[in-house]
Design a protein that fits this description.
The chain is an alpha/beta fold and 258 residues long. The chain has a 6-stranded mixed sheet with strand order 1-2-3-5-7-10, sandwiched between helices. A 4-stranded mixed sheet has the order 4-6-8-9. It contains 12 helices and 10 strands. Bound molecules: hexanoyl-coenzyme A.
Length: 258
């Protein structure tokens, strides 16, 4: 598939996907989301890739779903085409880690997309918000649910009801982002983190992602049981033998993803 709204690149074992509609501040149109979904699934299926980074521009990760595309929709259109579920949730099917590297605006669907990634590394210029209320609607790609899990009810209500933005400091303080880096270093840092993950044993990385995600969907005791099953299963891998032998022999492990 030739892409018009994103750029894709492979650096070592990391796939880098850059949202690329600069004139519209990377507004997430349906064609863009279809391309993003396609690129994500391609990276997930590529045995050479161990981690994926999704980023935008210096000014905007993404300023939301495309308002000009949504403007004329009626209820029946939105309902029948299941706007936005199809396409948007492809990212949730990706089993390898996906890091959002966010600079500038991550608003509305842009914030929701970042929250669908596994974690967010923010530039000090990042601004997060769910301003849909200003348009007479509410978040539609999970924002009211995921933001609440990240930052708690009080701050989520504040954001969703007033539409105000959070800066990078507030986002880190409240648990929305995992770390903040200077804007000029964002991509280098995100690629470095992704490269480190990509060098690890892929089965353990994928199971770690699966285990953490399970915590959102189940009780503590069921989640712990689930984790234990995955943990035990990793003792069947060659990489577990290699990882532990390397530690004992005081050398770097060489993982084979087996
Ligand atoms: C379509 C958008 C857009 C968007 C910006 N643009 N955001 N187009 N959809 N979400 C376009 C503008 O129309 C303009 O195009 C160009 O990008 C530059 O934007 P400006 O507004 O001129 O830039 P600036 O003054 O710097 O302001 C930046 C901004 C503002 C504060 C981010 O653009 C803004 O408020 N955007 C909308 C943010 C928002 O409401 N997002 C939520 C969308 S609803 P032209 O052609 O005029 O130059 C949503 C629902 C999700 O996301 C639900 C499910 C997915």
């Amino acid at each position: 598939m030739a892409y018009e709204n994103i750029l894709t690149e492979t650096r070592g074992s990391v796939a880098l996907i850059t949202l690329n509609r600069p004139k519209a501040l990377n507004a997430l149109s349906s064609p863009l989301m279809a391309e993003l979904g396609d690129a994500l699934l391609a990276a997930d299926a590529n045995a050479e890739i161990g981690c994926i980074v999704v980023t935008g521009s210096e000014k905007a990760f993404a300023a939301g779903a495309d308002i000009k595309e949504m403007q004329s929709k009626g209820f029946a259109d939105a309902y029948v085409e299941d706007f936005i579920t199809s396409g948007w949730e492809t990212i949730l099917r990706v089993r390898k880690p996906v890091i959002a590297a966010v600079a500038g605006y991550a608003l509305g669907g842009g914030c929701e997309l970042a929250m669908m990634c596994d974690f967010i590394i923010a530039a000090d210029s990042a601004k997060f918000g769910q301003p849909e209320i200003n348009l007479g609607v509410i978040p539609g790609a999970g924002g009211s649910q995921r933001l609440t899990r990240f930052v708690g009810k009080s701050k989520a209500m504040d954001m969703v009801l007033t539409g105000r933005n959070m800066d990078a400091q507030e986002a880190e303080r409240s648990g929305l982002v995992s770390r903040i880096v200077p804007a000029a270093d964002l991509l280098d840092e995100a690629m470095k983190v992704a490269g480190r993950i990509a060098d690890l044993s892929l089965p353990s990385v994928m199971m770690a992602k699966e285990a953490v995600n399970r915590s959102y969907e189940t009780t503590l005791s069921e989640g712990v049981r689930f984790e234990r099953r995955l943990f035990h299963s990793l003792f069947a891998t060659e990489d577990q033998k290699e990882g532990m032998a390397a530690f004992v022999e005081k050398r770097q492990p060489v993982f084979k993803n087996r």
